[in-house]
Amino acid sequence: MSAHDAIVLAGGAAKRLGGADKPAVSVGGRALLDRVLGACGGAARTVVVGGRRPTARPVHWAREEPPGGGPVAALDAGVRHVEADTVLVLSADLPFLKRETTSRLLDVLAADGAREGALLTDPDGRDQPLVAAYRTEPLRREIALLATEYGSLAGLPLRLLTHELDLARVAADADPLASFDCDTWEDISAARARIREHGTVLDEWITAVKDELGYELDVDITVLLDLARDAAHGVARPAAPLTTFLVGYAAGRAAAGGGGPEAVAEASRKATALALRWADEAAEDGGKAKGADAG
User: Fold this and answer.
1) Which residues have C-beta within 8 Å of that of residue 289, sequence separation ≥ 6?
2) What are phi and psi of 171, to 5 degrees?
3) Chain segment 184-217, per-residue pLDDT in tens
């Protein structure tokens, strides 16, 4: 993945949300804006265009002229703060966007030096210019040309910009929800319901907790659940949360010394082995007690 910056468009009137501050609306306990910021966490510099608000990670702020002037005006404001040769451009209302998708866009663009951008197409084949990676200079060039031609960037549709760029198109087959955006309260409700589904709720919860605690260490959920099961069955039910806490504490100390995800796996391995030995001893002692009773 190439060095890059990111622009997140977080303005707009959100008329279909009754004027609510859409980027601050919570989905899965996290603001929509923070969810998108998580998907571009690899950027050297992230510029958020819109009104200032608390965010889970540091960002640079910019404001389009005039405020509410539309996506092209917002892009113009954002790109003025970009330093890298490549920039991710994202809207702030994408609850299911993952870093895997943004990395894929960057990789496609890096692999084709002739292209000026790579944008996602949704499952219906529609271009998603606000889920895209662009080369910075062509983006600046075309924005300047539009400003000259129309006299103002306010209210211009994005298609005027993207039609002038040589773009690669990346199908959303691997992540069909990546471009799902929240324009209405029905969309918000659908997103909130989906993250609570059985197959996704644990991943969503762990991501939310990591975001809240401010760290990005990868967590193997299966390893920790297996450890909790073994501690509960082999020792006592309250041992499950206590053991996983101690494993996390040990992994955190190891990570501070230069460790990584391996620290969690190693601490879990040791604790699991201990719980199994504990269970074996209980089984062995139970067998002896039965033998003594039989005698």
Assistant:
1) none
2) -70, 145
3) 899 999 999 998 887 788 888 887 887 777 766 6
